[in-house]
Amino acid sequence: MLALNSNLTVEELERRWDEQTSPARFAGSDELMDNIFIASRKEERVFLIRKASGALDPFATVFRGRILPCGEGSVLKGRFTKRLFDYVLLLVLFALDAAVYLQGLLAGEADASLAGWCGGFALVLLLLAIPLRSARRRYRAFLESIVQPQETNQPEQRREAQ
């Protein structure tokens, strides 16, 4: 579980979430093409998914969380997971994998080769269900930029020559 504390109030953090995840922020921005996020917020619940440039990522990591009050500020709490559809698809593929292996057992043709293939396929499916560390790092950096806004530099006052 990820918990990012902020000195912003819940209302300020919700407003900042809406601003930073607005589609207008990413529109036409070439330098951000690798880090385009699609987000939504319903009251305190937030959802964030990274959109892969040029392709649909069927097993993309998503962040599901909540913006909650915490002391004088707020906290963004949530976890990295996959979409529900991805888990359903993995369950169906696991069932298919098991059915192939059981069919081989019943037919008397289950040897080490079939067990290896079915086990390997099951391992690949299991790995697809786990959010990658690199994806979590990208999400965390983006979430931290929302929770802890950068200080704006005050323009230096210029002395006017007399």
Shape: elongated
SSE class: alpha+beta
In percent, how much strand structure appears in the residues?
15-25%
Distance between the termini: 60 Å
CATH C-level of the largest domain = Alpha Beta
Q: Low-confidence segments, ≥5 residues, pLDDT <50?
A: 152-162
Q: Main sheet, how many strands, which sense, barrel?
A: 5 strands, antiparallel
Count of discrete domains: 2
Share of helix, binned: 40-55%
Q: What do we call the CATH topology of the largest domain?
A: TATA-Binding Protein
Q: Which sequence of SSEs, written as H and E, runs from N to C?
A: EHHEEEEHHH
Sequence of strands across the biggest β-sheet:
1-5-4-3-2
Query: What's the number of extended β-strand segments?
Result: 5
Number of helices: 5
* Rg for CA atoms: 23 Å
Average pLDDT across residues? 82
Write the CATH architecture name of the largest domain.
Answer: 2-Layer Sandwich
Describe this structure in words.
There is one protein chain. The chain has about 160 residues and is an alpha+beta fold. It has two domains: about 1-80 and about 130-145, TATA-Binding Protein (2-Layer Sandwich); about 85-125, no CATH class. About 45% of the residues lie in helices and about 25% in strands. The chain contains five helices and five strands, in the order E-H-H-E-E-E-E-H-H-H. A five-stranded antiparallel sheet has the order 1-5-4-3-2. The radius of gyration is 23 Å and the shape is elongated. The model is unreliable at about 150-160 (pLDDT under 50).
